[in-house]
Specification:
homodimer; alpha+beta; 27% helix; flat
Chain lengths: 193, 193
């Protein structure tokens, strides 16, 4: 099965998530909608993979990352971000985060900024078939990151020492950087190590 | 209106999010469910607050934090975590994260661990009516954090210097810590500053 129906469903569920937070309709409508949602869930649960998407062992062309909380097109929690890799090894993504990612009123939660930067910095370190994992990550919060506003996250590799990749990056909006980050990402051992 | 119908709706949408990621039903059922979800969203959108929940200016007893991405009971993206404050100033929360929070297959995304720790460390610094914001946060990833497994996050204040609160904490599971964190959280100025 192609991914497209699943992608469309996840997009619809993202809109439902936003409306769930922001609705002002009364208790009667909310209860009706809750029943509808439960019925929809029951239909989907008629056939359910065990565990999580990344543990799936069916080879039908759906990437394991489809369930990823940052980039997964099947995961309604994911914005989802699209990573762009430049020839010089840098990585960037542009996105807008809405009501579901709120921390301080009207602003992106600092932890969501950390999540985005962990992923974008890590993406500079990944090699095909050799995903890096985070060793350390340091974040500096320069000023609040607005919700519902165009944002860009970007990262680059500063240097590599053996299996350690040192990366840095930031979240920027039109007025400048809001959060900067430095991290060390560890590549898995290969037969050569 | 009491929060309880909204809370129940958000709980239902969390189950839908999980099923959206993990379903193996065919394209026909997925399309039917997508239409059902769109209809539910339309009902909720009949009356919608502008912006985000934290920007809401209606005083009906619903806390501003109801939309928060970590603790918001109305936010289906939030697990949601419940913060417990001890008399000594430490904060802890116990939780299980499922498929929607995946990074490496079968494991919690490192960025989600960062988000949880940002919130829990920050919670040690907050004072009534005086929310702290994150200044810096440093994370050390000790080993992978499993999905669908009991986790605990805990934090304490190490020292306070003026408006700066130095906090540290960790995510632990039964075998020990998976991620540790140190952070500096900044309290807003008061008239006394």
């Amino acid at each position: 099965m192609s991914e497209s129906p699943y992608r469309a469903l996840a997009e619809s569920v993202r809109r439902l998530v936003d409306a769930t937070i922001r609705t002002e309709v009364g208790p009667g409508v909310v209860s009706t909608v809750t029943s509808r949602v439960d019925a929809a869930t029951a239909q989907l649960r008629a056939a359910l993979m065990p565990g999580s998407f990344g543990e799936r062992r069916v080879a039908d062309g759906q990437p394991l990352a489809s369930g990823n909380v940052v980039i997964g097109i099947r995961n309604p929690v994911a914005p989802p971000l699209t990573m762009h890799h430049e020839p010089d090894g840098s990585v960037w993504t542009e996105f807008i985060l809405g009501a579901p990612y709120e921390g301080p009123p009207g602003h992106v939660h600092g932890g969501i900024c950390a999540m985005v930067l962990d992923h974008v910095l890590g993406a500079t370190a990944h090699q095909p078939g050799r995903p890096a994992h985070t060793g350390t990550l340091t974040l500096r919060y320069l000023r609040p990151t607005p919700l519902n506003w165009p944002l860009r996250a970007e990262a680059r590799v500063d240097r590599v020492e053996g299996r350690k990749v040192f990366a840095s990056g930031q979240i920027v909006e039109v007025s400048g950087a809001t959060v900067s980050a430095e991290g060390i990402f560890i590549l898995p051992r290969t037969e050569a190590d």
